[in-house]
What we know:
Elements: H1 2-19, E1 21-25, E2 31-38, E3 42-48, E4 51-57, E5 66-72, E6 76-77, H2 81-88, E7 100-110, E8 115-124, E9 127-137, E10 142-144, E11 147-159, E12 178-192
Antiparallel strand pairs: 1-4, 1-12, 2-3, 2-12, 3-6, 4-5, 5-7, 7-8, 8-9, 9-11, 10-11, 11-12
Amino acid sequence: MMRCSSYAIVALACCATSLAQDWQIDRAHSAAQFSVRHLMVSTVRGHFGKLTGTIRYDPANPAAASVQAEVDVSTVDTREAKRDAHLKSPDFFDVQKYPTMTFQSTKVEPAGQGKFKVTGNLTMRGVTRQTIFHVDGLTAPIKDRGGERIGATATAKVSRKEFGIIWNRVLEAGGVTVGDEVTITIDAELTKRAPAGSQ
């Protein structure tokens, strides 16, 4: 009886695993964006032009989901060439030494209808910190000529100083040029990865 029960558990586990599917970020319809306070009076926004990654997701077992994403930091764009050059320099991202920013989830928790709390390791400028993304989605799949698609928006707030990005300038009137807290927003559209060996 015990042996049969063990086989049943293994069979159920295999079935559950088979329902998990890999979804790839569609670069053409996704964006990695950030915002930070400037001169204590306004918010500067920018984005990265190259975002890639994969989500493994089973709607019946969302807590078993995993997320992996990578950003090419050299593609930073704030619509101001001099500022972008400064952000790429050793004062900020130091893209020559650290060309990518990565995130790897360690825990996924449901957080209400259609919402998730995703905890994981964010690595930026060679420093890794535990970071929490609050996710709105995933949406129900839709089909088009390219296959099935789902979407989600993820937001996190981080301290840039915790990643070694400490450059700043004190203002004569008080305050600083660049705020410490940075909001990261990922708008992702994902397509189902084709099974290995398929055409």
